[in-house]
Design goal:
The structure holds two protein chains of two kinds. Chain A is mostly helical. In chain A, 53% of the residues lie in helices and 0% in strands.
Chain lengths: 58, 175
C-alpha cells in the first residue's frame, strides 16, 4: 500500500505544481459556489493545496 | 534465518482456510464507519493537535522514517479497526503526508517523504564492490604494446570494404 501512496502523492504533487494559480472562489475547502455537480472536483488535491498554502503563508 | 527462509509447511494454513471463519468476525469485515475522504480527514486532522500523538510522530520522523511510510501505517491502522476502507485510506494518505510535513517544518526537523529518487551508489557490499570495479577499469592504463597498436590504428585511414560483384545466375553481366 505504501507504493500506491507514494505514487498518488507524486501525482498530486506534480498536478498541483503544474496547475495555474487561481483565486479561491469559496471560503470552504471543497467545492465551488453554485456548482450543480461535483465534476472536476478532487477533494484530496483541495486539501493538500490548502494545507500547503497555509504552511507557506506562515 | 533458516527458520524464516523455510516455513514449516505442515503448520501453514490450508488453501481457503481464511474463508471458513465466520464473516464479519473482524472489524475490517464490517461496513466502514467513515465512507468519504472528507470524513476521514475530519477524523485524522485533529490527531495532529494532540501532543502525545504529535510527539510520537515527530520522533519517528526524526528517526528517519519516510512520511509516506508513516501515512501508510496510520491508514492501515484505520483499516484494521474498521474505520474506513483501504481505498479511502489511500486517498487520505497524501493529506496526512502534507500534515506531517507541516508538523516537521514547525518543529524544524528534517524529513524524507519517500518519493525522492534513490541514490545510485548504495551502501550494500555489492554496490560498493561494483563502484570500485568500475573505478579501477576507468583508471587502468592500456598495456604498452596494445596502446601502441591502438595509437597506430587511430592514425591509419580506415579502408572501406570493397563490394564483390555477385556471380549468381540472376546477376547482370558486365556490358
Amino acid at each position: 500500500m505504501s507504493k500506491h501512496i507514494r505514487k498518488l502523492y507524486t501525482r498530486i504533487d506534480s498536478q498541483i505544481k503544474s496547475a495555474p494559480k487561481k483565486v479561491p472562489t469559496t471560503t470552504g475547502l471543497v467545492g465551488k459556489r453554485g456548482a450543480t455537480t461535483d465534476e472536476g472536483i478532487n477533494p484530496v488535491i483541495d486539501y493538500v493545496t490548502y494545507i500547503r498554502e497555509s504552511r507557506e503563508s506562515r | 534465518m533458516p527458520i524464516l527462509d523455510k516455513p514449516d509447511l505442515l503448520d501453514a494454513p490450508i488453501p481457503g482456510q481464511a474463508l471458513t471463519g465466520e464473516p464479519g468476525a473482524y472489524p475490517w469485515e464490517q461496513p466502514p464507519q467513515l465512507t468519504t475522504v472528507d470524513e476521514a480527514v475530519e477524523h485524522y486532522i485533529p490527531m495532529f493537535n494532540e501532543e502525545e500523538i504529535l510527539s510520537g510522530v515527530l520522533s519517528h520522523i526524526e528517526g528517519g522514517v519516510a512520511l509516506a511510510t508513516m501515512a501508510d501505517l496510520i491508514t492501515k491502522g484505520g483499516v484494521m479497526t474498521g474505520l474506513h476502507s483501504i481505498d479511502v485510506g489511500i486517498m487520505v494518505a497524501p493529506v496526512l503526508v502534507e500534515m506531517m510535513i507541516t508538523a516537521a517544518d514547525a518543529a524544524d526537523i528534517e524529513y524524507t517523504i519517500g518519493t525522492e529518487p534513490k541514490k545510485k551508489e548504495g551502501s550494500t557490499k555489492v554496490s560498493i564492490a561494483a563502484a570500485l570495479r568500475d573505478k579501477e577499469v576507468q583508471e587502468e592504463p592500456l598495456p604498452t604494446e596494445l596502446g601502441q597498436v591502438m595509437e597506430m590504428s587511430m592514425d591509419e585511414p580506415v579502408e572501406e570494404p570493397v563490394e564483390e560483384e555477385s556471380m549468381g545466375m540472376m546477376s547482370r553481366r558486365g556490358v
